[in-house]
Amino acid sequence: MSISPKHALLEEYALVARALSAPARLMLLEQLAQRERGVEALADKTGLTIANCSQHLQQLRRAALVTSRRDGKSVIYRLTDAKTLELMDLLRIVAERNLAQVERILQGLSDGEDAPEAVSRSDLAARLAEGSVTVLDVRPADEFAAGHIPGAINLTLTEIEGIVPTLDSSTEIVAYCRGPYCVYAHQAVAALRKLGLNARRLEGGLPEWREDGRPVLS
Amino acid sequence: MSISPKHALLEEYALVARALSAPARLMLLEQLAQRERGVEALADKTGLTIANCSQHLQQLRRAALVTSRRDGKSVIYRLTDAKTLELMDLLRIVAERNLAQVERILQGLSDGEDAPEAVSRSDLAARLAEGSVTVLDVRPADEFAAGHIPGAINLTLTEIEGIVPTLDSSTEIVAYCRGPYCVYAHQAVAALRKLGLNARRLEGGLPEWREDGRPVLS
DNA sequence: ACATCATTCAAGCGATAACTTGAATTATAG
DNA sequence: CTATAATTCAAGTTATCGCTTGAATGATGT
Predict the structure, then answer these.
(1) Which of B34-43, B59-68, B182-191 has the least mean pLDDT?
(2) In CATH, which superfamily holds the domain spanning B111-211?
(3) What is the ipTM for the molecules in this complex?
(4) How far in angstroms lies nucleotide D24's C1' from the CA of residue A64?
């Protein structure tokens, strides 16, 4: 028996929490929730230097939140399993349930106007089946190409204004992005509503949609 | 709109994770999962100095994992809601699913022998109803007095050997303690099995039992 | 076997966190 | 209103974390 088993156990639990306690690592996990990637691609996407990115990834691996394998010259990282995603989600839920600060930040995105309720994934699936909705994918083109909700239109935030006149203003728009950590969809909905369109946000993002076992086109 | 809403949001999520990233604060949360308490009682139970304890509690409050109220001269802290408990549980599940380290620590407790599966709460409830089980509460007497599973016997680890001869060796023993962070039940089961008794551990602890809406006697 | 290139290691710096000690608050109780 | 007692704040020390820079590793593929 070790000197203090109780303390050693707590230390292990704390290690997992500490791995989630840096914004840079949450960004990396958000990227990895989209799809597995190599170190350089992750560094690119997050704006971290390669060495720094590698160190963060090793901390995530030490906490067993991600795993790695070699593919040719690159080391590919990915989330260990769905539990990692669950943990990220619960972290977000607790933060949003509890912190007035978070609400103020999200409020700021929509310029003080209250954001409407998010659309649930089952609702969106039903309305997709009857064709009564336009789906907007507000992610970079490469992530869209790697997989998206069938029928979705891929637009960056800056392209939105240009496309608005071509949209049927009576059909509701549902926007989604990378997931709950991502603010693109929030911003898109705010922009569309300011232009007088009926827009709402999908609950979660593509990783959650995929995790539900719903169809993904690539 | 703030300078970088995305980064600000991630910072908030990271704050919650950081609050869970120190063993001392996990100890405090484990105590608070038992029942609400004042600063001095918590400092006593965890072995922290009062000032240090107060500072940790304020970090937990900043992350909105706990709330406080004044009662007479004392400030009483308690978990904000069940989500806090859920988050602690998921943290533990991920750590135990993933970290070989954790298994080795728990293995060490039972001196290399594989620990048997934990008993689920619904199983224990059913077997309590038919009286085919002895329930052991391995927590300090004051926590036992504040609430326990009906019919449970309260014993400290050191008292276990003395009581063994009085037990019916054909009836299975189920031991529980504060919860998944707590190793008392693990140690009790290991000790009992070494003495040749048929003992297993309850899944989770009293907080989880109570959260299930099952009867608690005090 | 060797050259290549992505990744990882190592050292250094500035910033932040944990813990201790001692003083300042703050709400109650007399 | 003042005294009291619990809690919180503040300052100082040590340790750890995040990031940068530059060198080392190690598997691949020629």
Answers:
(1) B182-191
(2) Rhodanese-like domain (3.40.250.10)
(3) 0.78
(4) 26
